Amino acid sequence: MLLDFNSDKPIYIQISEAIEDDILKDIYKEEEQVISTTELSVSLKINPATARKGLNLLVDDGIIYKKRGVGMFVCDGAKDKILEKRKKSFYDNFISSLLEEASKLKISKEEIIKMIEGGN
Amino acid sequence: MNSIEVKNITKYYGNTKALDDVSITIEPNKIYGLLGRNGAGKTTLLNLLTNKIFPNKGNITLDGESIFENDKALNNIFYMMEKNLFPETMKVKEVFKWTKEFYTSFDDDYAKSLSGKFGLNINKKVKGLSTGYTSIFKAILALASNANVLLLDEPVLGLDANHRDLLYKELLTSYNERPKTIIISTHLIEEVSEVLEEAIIIKAGKILAKKSVEELLESAYTVSGEASNVDSYISGKEYIGEETMGRFKSVTVLENSSKQNKELARKLDLEFSNVELQKLFINLTN
Fold it and tell me: Does A36 contact B at CB distance below 8 Å?
């Protein structure tokens, strides 16, 4: 997991998104254990409170769950949940910035559609 | 346990006021950064916390008990100082033994295993160590002391990038295994900022801010763009750290970045960005 310490996205959110990415890529499969707070804290050189906050975000979203005294595990159906959530934010994260940049460059809607379809 | 109360501490050196009516609470098991410019009073505060010097006014308690001439309280606090207090002709491994006399839970095996990781030769005399290895040696003493409170004054002084990396990792490993209160006084803010939970900013003997790093960073943002647009944006706002490069200007605004502000900035074609702890620190203490 690589973090961007200069990004304006808080570290704990970057952590939760990176773990979501790992779940989408099957690095952590459903019902498998995910990286621990301690591992995150030491390997990324961050305060464990930050790491915990990132993991708790995923617990709140029902993507991972806590087994007492063992660690955090990927929930059943987590992948679908992440896909659904990511699709919802796809517009905010990608489309709106694409449209903003396009309007700066005076690229028309038709031109954008053409680009997406693979013509230039 | 191990909560430290600093109440109304004033400390003079001759006529110079080094600390001016300082009151702070250090909560247990958090990692604090003590940040301040040279001469701001950082080391004075650490010296007071360990009874190395005495305040002119005020008192300091550990779990409600005054620390003044209180050996029991002081044995819970390990102070890694810039100056050495042990005989410099001792070998490293002898200092390990010697430290166990004062800190009875000192872990000799852990100290030796850390020495191995850092490549510190424990048969060397302390006075023969380089600046970097002197820092490493002192940090090892602190980590192995098993004290509940660690005060680290410039712990990475003279360390190369690899050793700094290793030190932060070992510090966090130890903290994760057994939480303790750690106060790190340092000038290298950027690389330590994510390690900290709270920052204490000290300026000219006064506490300027004591907040979680997250809160501190949320209390300000940087806005940049064409100079006249930036000027109209910041009118009526509290700001610091103006920087102009040609017609480009950036300013750190001291408020939460609300939706309204972002909207206004977008209309003026300005860019919003998060402020870094280092930059905020420079601007606050200038």
Answer: no
